[in-house]
Amino acid sequence: MAEKLNKLPKVTEYFCDEDQFSPGNACCPGCIMELNLRLVSKIMGKDSILLGTPGCSAPTIHGQNDRAWHKHSYYACVMTGVASSATGLARYYKKAGIDATIVCHTGDGCAQDIGIQTISGAAERNENIIYICYDNEGYMNTGVQRSSATPYGAATSTTPVGLKSIGKTTNSKNMPMIMAMHDIPYVATATLSHLEDYAKKLTKAKEMVKQGFVYLHVFCPCTVGWKVKPDSSITVCRAAVQSNYFPLWEVGNGAYRITQPVAKPKPINEMLKLIGKFNHLKDQEISVLQQQSDNRFSILQALCSIRA
Ligand SMILES: Cc1ncc(C[n+]2csc(CCOP(=O)(O)OP(=O)(O)O)c2C)c(N)n1
Ligand code: SF4
Fold it and tell me: What total number of domains does the chain contain?
């Protein structure tokens, strides 16, 4: 596989051949979740089978009215059971002797909350499934409610800011690390400001799924829910990586590795000030978020040092 990864094309070259998705999309201005879907489709290949659930990716991945936006085989699943549906499909294709890559693509509300039981079960059974969670830190499609991915201090429609409230009062769930603790063949984080890094991880995912369950967690700002300028989503992704708020790492067969180390991490506030949902935070709350981010990064570094 190392040889294959060294020979990967430049990321722009992926977009030169036939596109499985039609031009345009049904997302809000500046939403990069659709770019995520397009890259997944390019690297997984036109014969990959997609599964999705209700959420912001639904208009693009399910289609709208009687029209589809792509040419992949697609299964629309309930939020509670996407990993169970994927299990059935993966086993069916295997039994039928068909070499098919099964790819679930859902939001964090589905992956971390509503669907976590079946995801954890499928991971423990080591099913041949790739699960991609696009993390926009909330239930965006139903009106920007908080999910377990929403960070401390964020303003959402269910954690509003007022005289006595600072937004969400608890930390987010560290979902990629939870999945890594399932000891599955491959887990990685990715984001859209680092497309080469993401493309490599998708390529590895396609290979590693032959050994079992693969989980990719993709940081994916929501311009509307986060109050981010439509032209700033990629800047926010980059700031999240450069502050170690969202470090890019992978673990394959027990070996953890930071794939994009940051020599001089920036203070988390450099990222927070690009995002309206944090605008009300004072120094005290910002230091809580900085501390939480530092703690998580220390755990990651410790895991990386085990087999370094
Ligand atoms: C079991 C279940 N509970 C609630 C809903 C209602 N619902 C539809 S879309 C959605 C939001 C999904 O959030 P997420 O998975 O994070 O995706 P996003 O909208 O953020 O892209 C919800 C809660 C549902 N369809 N099924
Ligand atoms: S609400 Fe957010 S995640 Fe949903 S389509 Fe709009 S920008 Fe994208």
Answer: 1
